[in-house]
Amino acid sequence: MTKTNEKNGSPDKAEHLHHRVRLPGFIADEEIGLGDAVKRATSFFGIQPCRGCARRAAALDRWLVFINRRSK
Q1: DSSP structural state of residue 61
Q2: What pTM was computed for the model?
């Protein structure tokens, strides 16, 4: 089930950070985080990254990951 923190009995925060969304196999062959997807889309349109972009991309990557439908 869920892991609990032994000090206060609440669920671990690390367990709830990653959400995984499965995509059809023809869309992505490898796992890609939401931050990486946003970074690719904005660079495609020529938007230059700012100072906080890397930090935001890392936070979004921790929050949501797109996986291939065929991978486990």
Answers
A1: H
A2: 0.62
